[in-house]
Structure to design on (230 residues):
């Protein structure tokens, strides 16, 4: 055992580090999410029913050529705890790590989109100031770090403050986000990954796409960390 490992083990005895997924103590070189949780988190099968449901959400937007979610979101699950940790408890490292894990698995599967740029779905400045950061930026940062695809959290801005989408139908969600995004400056990239945390109806992502189409982008890949089960 080297000196660094000894001090880490000693510190863990006094100030135990806990997994953000299951709240059990982290051991050895584990960071943020324990090994068991990393392995057992419910992935979306690329050939399964959940993937089919995800694909159909964007069937009326031909510019969206590919969509995929990393994990399945269900209430009171480890995925919900992880999302809650980095959205509402300030655990930024969880968001970055989930982005890294997602990127690593897409690389390993050979399904990484050939995109020019990753754009994270923006928060309104009021909400971003209240939270301290945009959770989608963390996901994009982690994903970019392992895939090499550059990302931006500034090109697309949310210029209208809207009510929460929770509890709204897809039609209501579409109306709620209509015209809320704007492009700031020139965008030269044509093939874009749009990254967000949870996909429900897809209304917000569609509005992002429509705004970027007006700026000259013509091919989109939707990637989210989780797909909400209905």
């Amino acid at each position: 055992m080297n000196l660094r490992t000894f001090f880490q083990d000693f510190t863990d005895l006094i100030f135990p580090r806990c997994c953000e997924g299951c709240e059990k103590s982290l051991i050895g070189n584990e960071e943020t999410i324990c090994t068991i949780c990393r392995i057992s988190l419910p992935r979306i099968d690329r050939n399964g029913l959940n993937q089919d449901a995800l694909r159909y959400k964007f069937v009326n937007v031909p510019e969206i050529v590919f969509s995929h979610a990393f994990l399945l979101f269900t209430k009171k699950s480890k995925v919900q705890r992880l999302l809650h940790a980095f959205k509402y408890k300030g655990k930024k490292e969880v968001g970055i790590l989930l982005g890294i894990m997602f990127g690593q698995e897409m690389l390993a599967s050979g399904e990484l989109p050939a995109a020019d740029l990753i754009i994270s779905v923006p928060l309104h400045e009021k909400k971003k100031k209240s939270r301290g950061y945009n959770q989608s930026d963390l996901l994009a940062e982690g994903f970019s770090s392992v895939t090499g695809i550059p990302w931006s959290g500034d090109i697309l801005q949310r210029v209208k403050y809207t009510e929460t989408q929770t509890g709204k139908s897809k039609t209501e969600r579409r109306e709620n986000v209509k015209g809320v995004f704007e492009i700031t400056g020139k965008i030269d990239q044509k093939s874009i990954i749009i990254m967000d945390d949870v996909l429900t109806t897809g209304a917000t992502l569609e509005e992002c796409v429509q705004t970027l189409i007006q700026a000259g982008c013509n091919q989109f890949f939707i990637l989210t960390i989780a797909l909400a089960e209905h």
Notes: The chain has nine helices and seven strands.
